[in-house]
Structure formats: structure tokens, C-alpha cells
Write a structure and sequence with these properties.
Blueprint (H helix, E strand, L loop, with lengths): L1 H23 L3 H26 L8 H20 L16 H23 L4 H20 L10 E2 L14 H24 L1 H11 L1 H6 L4 H27 L1 E2 L6 H14 L6 H17 L6 H14 L3 H7 L6
Antiparallel strand pairs: 1-2
Length: about 325
């Protein structure tokens, strides 16, 4: 445990030091890559709460990611065009304020997770996987057929949304926003995992009969975890759309859900910093190998296979056990 905490500290230090060094050297593209890592790691942290602690293998988490993205896109597009979203009981033309957009993304992601979870959690195993996948694809095709917000072509936001006191168009300042949000969510998730709720959720993953024997309902525990997970992933979607200043139906795709699962598995299922390590590795491989070949996912697949076969607990788990302790 002590070794893993040390490793987590090293990962956190690297998350900050690499973009700060790039800023001093005048390399904004590296800062953008680090920002992408922080945002995708945030989405992975959301999934990891459901997958790593709750044992819920969801192939539909891109639904929450896309909902967060479209929450940003819809609100910001109306604000930049001065086109009212509401005309009664009052006129409101959206917003370009990041904190307000985040609130909408979190609430929208949580509500979607509540509805999807209430239905899908009545199943288990492969049926749960397929139901969540079906919901994700439903949102994907809905976004494609939504011409008011770009349809298949997506929706561009010409100016990044604002945060009080900061210049969000400055790469290092926008990175700082995303990294601080990631750190805050990591801290809260660590508290959730260590709380009585987190212990009960973990127990439900291991033995449902024992949890029921002490008067707890596994369905309710999993639904709460699923809702929190959806809220976190929705927040990540809003930040990702702000990073690119663009939102499209691709954010809802099953490939996006698959990538989130890959982050978690590579870094370590159930490990607090597993998604951070997994996202960093994925973005690094995408940048380095993507320029060499369009088929760089082959190398990612080989790495994923090696991790699954030989690195129990992912990269973080394998490194944390080097001293002989789990």
C-alpha cells in the first residue's frame, strides 16, 4: 500500500511537471496532450468507480461522456449566437461560463445514469454489458439525427468557454483547470471508496448473499455508484468538448466506451490512479505511433494482452507489488 501511494505521488508529480516544463520550453502542443490525458483520466476515474469497485462492466459510458460534451456544445453555441434556449418564463441564451456548464454536464450525466442504471442493473453479466451498449448506441444515432446541433457533422464552438480570473485560451491555464478538477475528483473518489458505502459496494461485488444478509440491497448500492460514475464522466465530456471546441456524435460511440475500459485495464482496475496511468499511456502511444502507422492500435492491443496476462492489477498493480506486497 505504501509503495502504491509513492507511485501515485510520482504519477501526480509527472502530470504537473511535464506540462510545466513544456510551458517553460514553449511547447504548447505537449501541454495540450497533457490536458487530454487529464480529461480522459477523469472519464476513466468515473468508469473505474463502477467497474473497479462495483464490478459493473459498462460498454455504454460513452453515453455520459457524450451527454457532457453536448451539454457544453448546446449551451455555448446558443450563447455565441445569442439564440435563446428558453423564451418563457424568462429568456436565456445559454452560457459561456465553465462552472455553469460543468453543473449542467454533471446533472445531465447523473440523470442519464439514473435512468440507464435503473433499467440495466436489473440484469447482470453479458446482459448488462449489452444493455449499456444499446443505450450508448441509441444516444449515438440520436445525435446523428439531431440537425439543430450539427447532426453527423458535429458542432463547432469558436471561442473556448471562460473561467473567472483565468485565460482559458492559454494552454497552461486550461491544463491547470483540468488537472485541478481531476485531483479534486480523485480525492472525492478515494473518500467514497474508503467510506462505509464504498466498503459495502465492494462487498456486493464479491458476495451478494453476504451483503443482503446484513440488510443491504446490492441493487441500490450499484445504482448510486453508477449515478456518481455517470456524473463524473459527464463532467469529463464537457471538458473534452471544451478542449477541442468541438462536439460530435463520435463522443457517444462504442469505440469511446471501449477506450475508457482500456484506460482502466491498462492502469489497473480498482486502482485509484490506474485511469491516469492508462490514459497517459494511451495518449502517448497515439501520439508517437499514430504518426508512424494508421494501425497503431495493433501495438496497443499487444500491450493490453500482455497486461491482462502478466500484470494482475494493471501497470499500477504490477509496480506496486514489486516489493512483494499487494
Amino acid at each position: 500500500m505504501m509503495r502504491e501511494r509513492t507511485l501515485n505521488g510520482i504519477v501526480l508529480a509527472g502530470l504537473w511537471l511535464i506540462p510545466l516544463t513544456a510551458w517553460l520550453m514553449g511547447a504548447p502542443f505537449t501541454i495540450t496532450l497533457a490536458t487530454k490525458v487529464a480529461i480522459l483520466a477523469l472519464a476513466g476515474v468515473g468508469l473505474n468507480l463502477a467497474l473497479g469497485i462495483g464490478g459493473l462492466v459498462s460498454l455504454g459510458h460513452a453515453a455520459f461522456f457524450g451527454i457532457g460534451g453536448y451539454a457544453m456544445g448546446v449551451l455555448a453555441s446558443h450563447a455565441q449566437a445569442f439564440d435563446p434556449i428558453l423564451t418563457a418564463p424568462f429568456e436565456w441564451s445559454g452560457t459561456k461560463s465553465m462552472p455553469v456548464i460543468w453543473l449542467f454536464a454533471i446533472v445531465a450525466g447523473a440523470l442519464a445514469a439514473l435512468v440507464i442504471g435503473a433499467l440495466s442493473l436489473r440484469t447482470s453479466g453479458v446482459y448488462f454489458i449489452m444493455v449499456t451498449l444499446a443505450f450508448g448506441q441509441m444516444f449515438y444515432y440520436f445525435a446523428i439525427s439531431w440537425p439543430a446541433y450539427g447532426g453527423e457533422d458535429g458542432l463547432s464552438i469558436y471561442v473556448r468557454n471562460g473561467f473567472p480570473g483565468l485565460n482559458t485560451l492559454d494552454p497552461i491555464q486550461f491544463f491547470a483547470i483540468c488537472a485541478v478538477v481531476l485531483m479534486a475528483v480523485l480525492w472525492h473518489v478515494s473518500r467514497i471508496v474508503a467510506s462505509p458505502f464504498g466498503l459495502a459496494l465492494n462487498a456486493a461485488r464479491q458476495s451478494e448473499p453476504r451483503v443482503r444478509a446484513v440488510g443491504l440491497e446490492p441493487y441500490r448500492l450499484r445504482l448510486i455508484a453508477f449515478v456518481i460514475s455517470g456524473a463524473i464522466t459527464g463532467l469529463a465530456g464537457a471538458l473534452f468538448a471544451d478542449l477541442n471546441r468541438f462536439v460530435s456524435p463520435v463522443m457517444f460511440s462504442w469505440q469511446m466506451s471501449g477506450e475508457l475500459i482500456v484506460f482502466v485495464i491498462l492502469g489497473g482496475v480498482g486502482r485509484l490512479f490506474g485511469p491516469v496511468v492508462g490514459a497517459a499511456l494511451f495518449v502517448t502511444l497515439e501520439h508517437w505511433l499514430g504518426g508512424l502507422s494508421d494501425y497503431w492500435h495493433i501495438y496497443l492491443g499487444v500491450l493490453l494482452l500482455l497486461v491482462v496476462l502478466f500484470a494482475r492489477g494493471g501497470i499500477v498493480g504490477a509496480l506496486a507489488r514489486r516489493d512483494g506486497h499487494d
